[in-house]
Design a protein that fits this description.
352 residues, mainly alpha, two-stranded antiparallel ribbon
Length: 352
């Protein structure tokens, strides 16, 4: 987070701090107060939307580390969410584990799956790696369908709601608090992770893997670390998703969601912690806007009402992604930094 001219840092710890001034801390406190008081004045529908946004943010943080920072493009991210979801669901529903013990096990299982399917990244990259991650998604879904006695196959199975000290999180508001707590923790962890030695190695591999290897960076180790960390985030998101619906089914993890998660990362801005948040919020809100505009469009053009209502969401999301790729390839996070820089220097802002 940037600071104004005249504010000086007197130690390395101050320079590395995320929140450096009282203004930064004030903004953070105001945001957290507003966020966690939302259930007091928002409807259940809005809480559901924000809960889905929170789960998407957690998953996209993992994709951002893997693709945005390390440059390993993955279009099988939802498959790893399914691994975490089913592992957590099976441990709770069939073995009687606590939610708080099953969730980290689900995240770990997703991370191990990421290590296994990340092995091809040591030999291939680009288009071929994309195809390998797509194959990973369908292999995972096929395994879930085949292990009927364990996973319920295509029928799925019921999953109990998580509880805290005997208090079951049944209401929209209670689960909203749980998801937002995990989303805040995931954001904080992701932002700090990319500032570590491993994070700098990820960026070097993304920019030029041959140059990174010449500098002594172990590509084998760091690529697998990126897959493991990214899939751990996906596992946490998948576990939260399956417990929100209190049901585990492969229909909750369609392949197209992996494509849209990558689209959210493009819109928000790759290689940025804020980009994961901007992308998830913007495209999720776009979906809600489409549900409002769709009936209006159907009323204006009754001849194509059904077709328009069904395809408007896909058209809108696809169009937004294309426009960002052409006109703002660095995403909303870059535009936000430009806006902050403009007002920070105002009235002496330079013109590009």
């Amino acid at each position: 987070m940037g600071i104004r001219s005249g504010t000086f840092q007197e130690s390395y710890a101050q320079d590395m701090a995320i929140f450096r001034t009282r203004l930064h801390w004030g903004i953070l406190c105001a945001f957290l107060i507003l966020l966690f008081t939302c259930p007091l004045f928002l409807s259940d529908r809005m809480l559901t939307i924000m809960t889905m946004i929170g789960i998407a943010i957690i998953s996209i943080h993992g994709l951002s580390i893997l693709t945005g920072y390390c440059g390993q493009i993955s279009i099988g991210h939802v498959g790893f969410m399914a691994v975490g979801a089913y592992t957590s669901a099976i441990l709770i529903a069939k073995l009687g584990w606590s939610f708080w013990a099953a969730l980290p096990c689900g995240a770990l299982a997703a991370g191990i799956a990421g290590l296994i399917f990340g092995l091809p990244s040591l030999k291939i990259k680009g288009f071929y790696l994309i195809m390998a991650t797509i194959a990973a998604h369908f292999i995972i879904i096929w395994l879930i369908l085949q292990l009927y006695d364990l996973t319920g196959g295509a029928d799925g199975f019921g999953v109990p709601r998580p509880d805290i000290a005997g208090f079951v999180l049944k209401s929209k508001a209670s689960y909203f608090y749980l998801v937002m707590a995990f989303a805040c923790l995931a954001t904080f962890t992701a932002h700090n992770m990319v500032r570590t030695r491993a994070g700098r190695a990820f960026v070097a591999i993304r920019d030029n893997d041959l140059a990174a290897e010449v500098m002594g960076i172990n590509l084998w180790s760091y690529k697998l670390q990126a897959f493991f960390i990214g899939c751990v985030y996906a596992g946490v998101a998948g576990s939260l998703l399956v417990h929100y619906y209190a049901f585990a089914s492969v229909d909750m993890f369609p392949f197209m969601d992996s494509v849209w998660y990558l689209g959210m990362l493009i819109v928000g801005g790759m290689g940025s912690t804020a980009g994961a948040i901007f992308g998830a919020v913007s495209l999720k809100l776009l979906d809600e806007l489409v549900t409002i505009v769709g009936p209006m469009l159907a009323a204006i053009f009754p001849a194509v009402a059904a077709q328009a209502a069904a395809s408007l969401g896909l058209i809108a999301r696809g169009l937004i992604i294309i426009l960002f790729l052409i006109f703002e390839p660095r995403g909303l996070a870059h535009r936000w930094e430009m806006i902050k820089a403009y007002f920070k220097l105002w009235p002496f802002s330079h013109q590009e």
